[in-house]
Design brief:
heterodimer, A: mainly alpha, Fumarate Reductase Cytochrome B subunit, globular, B: mainly alpha, Fumarate Reductase Iron-sulfur Protein, Chain B, domain 2, 3 domains, 4-stranded parallel beta sheet, 3-stranded parallel beta sheet
């Protein structure tokens, strides 16, 4: 294998490991940190089922964001759903052996590249042109969008502008990563750039604001049932406090 | 007090352009050594404050899941940037919820995250230095913890949680706010925010009884420390002395009288407000709640009802059961005793609005709505009721029940425009421990969005009465309405409207409608 292939192969495992370990640690931290008080925000669901519905509205429709800002919602929603479609579209590359019929049907998902680029560009434009959003943006906020745009553009160029890499090699390389049967990756610069940037994206996931993905599920204002009068909600450290005889 | 310009009310509420440092200042008066010490905080800013502050931050991060989740999850999308009344009223960028959080978040990143430790510039991580602490003190006392931002945040990030954590950290290093901490000291010592001792309270209640009897010819009682009463009323102490609050108290008394309820106030727990929430201190908040539990046990009541007070109702509804086991499920002996004693066929605690609404539903109250015909009423949803509680056990009941009670007592009711009421309600501008004259400019400017909506309903709907069910809202409105050329007396308690229209058995038939 060429040195490039070895480096990229190693970088894939490094990126994925950092991501998995980092996100797991964060999830453990969130899950093990107590929520001492009931703090659901309005309109608060009174039942568990209501909480599930609320969470689905937030995760799939971005309903609060829709209330807040239609433009941000439009760009953000386009971008996220395009990303989901493109993720699915990439699965065949990694699928060992025969690609299932269902995954082969995902060919048209490639057009999601356009809403993806539109969404990301819109979000980036907001950072530059809306004074309030510019004020709250750190360099990392711009860079993350630029990183995603570069990934999208390199991907789109390969798909739509005939900068095709050697597809046989792409399949072999990607499949090899999964089956541990490593092989050469294509040498086209644009492909290498695309893959490198994706690995970077994966690696920085747990140390970036991408933590909003697991975070939203742990958000107590969104995931609590508003039933404080019926059921006592109390954290372990508060119970300890009570047992130690403070108060009563 | 420096002079300031009251914002102009336009035909619609415009999002201001950024005015950097528009509200830069030293912040509200600081608590003195005695006030700090009485709450168990250091008397003055300690020498190794930076170290202790970072340790305290670490403690809040490990004790409250909301803090790490909210600090990590924000993507700086900007959804909240135009949602805070203090930003809308002042244009100071640090009053945008996310920017306010970032004062805390940038320090969190510097000390508690990989990216902030090794690439601080890249992710906007900052050190907690003198100037940052000054910003903390100033801008975390420009947040009324109203939670409007949380409604619009795609991750539900609630700036109130961050503000509370920041105030908690500041108190731990000896930097406290005078208004909150002085009041908390009074509750601890005497039992209410005013520092009103039992004899004064008793006199006030007797005066009120006389006043009601003079007015109606009916001997409506306001009992104090009556053992064996069925209901313990916990209400903000402002109800005992301030206008228009006191008319609300008269309203509760009339409703209790008319429903033949045996009820009482407590001189030991003569305060519904709980500023422990404002400073984010669990222990102090719990102490306040325990006073109420003790009063309930000592008096042997079977129901606890809370008067018109926004954050008190949030604490009572959402936190009392957690803090003291008022409700169900607690296992310590006092809570068990209380649970045995409380009538579990009612939710515990209940809001006075739920009580009155229940009676109205059962047809037990009769109103002469024409008594309120000189009014066209609108209702201000208080932030803590709207976004931190429920009423009636039905979804969005906290919006429905107060309106139904008002409509039962008034013929003319008009809501303010959508986006300024219910879950989206604007804070009055004085909540969260900011109801102090050293923050008057902030309070006046922060009231702008509410005043704007009120103006619109005045022009379109002829509104001349603003009903509220929170002591802070009522005081704040009385103060700031004149700045916007409104009549300060247009603000009323919801139960004042009830009081004026309620027909008492045996009431003087000749009773004239009370003049405004």
């Amino acid at each position: 294998m060429s040195l490039t292939s070895i480096i990229f192969t190693a970088f894939f495992y490094l990126g994925v490991s950092l991501c998995l370990v980092g996100v797991t640690l964060k999830i453990i931290q969130y899950a093990s940190t107590p929520v001492p008080l009931k703090i659901p925000t309005a309109p608060a669901p009174l039942t568990k089922f209501g909480v599930i519905l609320r969470m689905m509205r937030e995760v799939f429709l971005f309903s609060s964001l829709f209330k807040a800002s239609k433009w941000t919602w439009l760009f953000g929603w386009l971008f996220h759903w395009a990303l989901v479609l493109l993720f699915i579209r990439h699965l065949p590359y990694f699928w060992p052996g025969e690609t299932p019929e269902l995954l082969r049907q995902t060919e048209p998902f490639k057009y999601a590249a356009f809403p993806l680029i539109i969404g990301l560009t819109g979000l980036l434009a907001r950072r530059f042109f809306v004074d309030r959003v510019r004020y709250i943006s750190a360099p990392s906020d711009y860079l993350l969008l630029i990183l995603l745009i570069l990934i999208a553009v390199t991907g789109a160029l390969m798909t739509f502008a005939q900068y095709y890499p050697d597809m046989g090699k792409v399949y072999a390389f990607a499949e090899g990563l999964v089956t541990l049967d490593w092989s050469e990756l294509p040498s086209e610069g644009i492909f290498l750039a695309h893959v490198f940037l994706v690995f970077v994206l994966i690696a920085i996931f747990p140390v970036s604001k991408m933590l909003h993905a697991p975070g939203v599920l742990f958000s107590p204002t969104l995931n609590q049932t508003d039933d404080a009068r019926k059921n006592r909600h109390i954290s372990d450290w508060a119970i300890e406090k009570e047992k130690s005889g403070k108060g009563g | 007090m420096e002079k300031f310009d009251t914002p102009k009310l336009d035909t619609y509420l415009a999002t201001p352009t950024l005015k950097s440092d528009a509200m830069e200042s030293d912040g509200p008066f600081k608590a003195n050594t005695d006030m700090q010490k009485s709450l168990g905080f250091p008397g003055e800013k300690i020498d190794n404050w930076q170290q202790v502050a970072i340790e305290k931050m670490g403690e809040t991060i490990s004790k409250y899941r909301s803090i790490p989740v909210f600090l990590d999850a924000c993507v700086k999308c900007g959804a909240c940037t135009d949602k805070c009344h203090y930003f809308l009223g002042t244009g100071d960028p640090k009053n945008m919820p996310v920017a306010r959080q970032d004062l805390f978040r940038s320090v969190y990143r510097r000390h508690f995250t990989f990216a902030g430790k090794y690439f601080p510039k890249l992710v906007g991580a900052k050190e907690l230095d003198e100037s940052m602490l000054d910003d903390w003190y100033n801008y975390f006392h420009q947040c009324s913890e109203c939670r409007r931002c949380s409604v619009y945040c795609p991750y539900g990030i609630d700036t109130a949680e961050i503000t509370m954590a920041a105030r908690e950290v500041m108190n731990a290093i000896g930097v406290g706010q005078k208004y909150c901490n002085q009041i908390l000291g009074k509750v601890k010592k005497i039992g209410n925010n005013l520092g009103m001792p039992e004899p004064a309270l008793r006199d006030t209640l007797l005066d009120l009884e006389e006043e009601i009897e003079e007015d109606t010819g009916v001997a409506v009682k306001l009992p104090l420390d009556k053992e064996g009463a069925e209901i313990l009323l916990i209400t903000p102490s402002a109800d005992f002395f301030a206008e228009p609050h006191i008319d609300g108290l008269i309203g509760y008394a009339k409703v209790f009288h008319q429903s033949d309820a045996s009820w009482t106030l407590s001189s030991y727990a003569s305060e519904g407000a709980n500023f422990g929430m404002f400073i984010g201190n669990y222990d102090i908040m719990r102490e306040g709640a325990l006073r109420i539990r003790k009063a309930a046990l000592d008096l042997g009541v079977s129901r606890i009802i809370v008067g018109e007070c926004g954050h008190a109702w949030r604490v009572a509804y959402s936190f009392w059961n957690t803090l003291t086991g008022i409700g169900g499920g607690a296992t310590d002996e006092y809570a068990l005793q209380l649970q045995k004693q409380l009538d579990q066929s009612y939710p515990q605690p209940q809001h006075i609005i739920e009580y009155t609404y229940g009676l109205i539903q059962k047809g037990r109250l009769t109103f002469d709505k024409s008594k309120n015909d000189h009014r066209t009423v609108t209702f201000h949803d208080s932030c803590n009721v709207a976004r931190g509680s429920n009423m009636g056990g039905i979804e969005c009941g906290q919006f429905i029940l107060p309106r139904e009670v008002i409509k039962a007592a008034c013929n003319h009711f008009v809501d303010m425009s959508k986006g300024t009421i219910k879950a989206s309600t604007f804070c009055c501008g004085g909540g969260g421990g900011l109801l102090t004259d050293d923050l008057l400019e902030l309070r006046v400017k922060g009231a702008l969005p509410r005043m704007q909506a009120l103006k619109q309903s005045e022009e379109k709907g002829g509104v001349n009465t603003l009903a509220a069910l929170c002591a802070i809202c009522k005081s704040q409105f009385s103060k700031v309405l004149p700045y916007y050329d409104f009549d300060p007396f247009m603000v009323v308690s919801v139960h004042q409207l009830v009081s004026e229209a309620l027909i008492l058995d045996g009431e003087n038939s000749q009773k004239e409608s009370k003049a405004l």
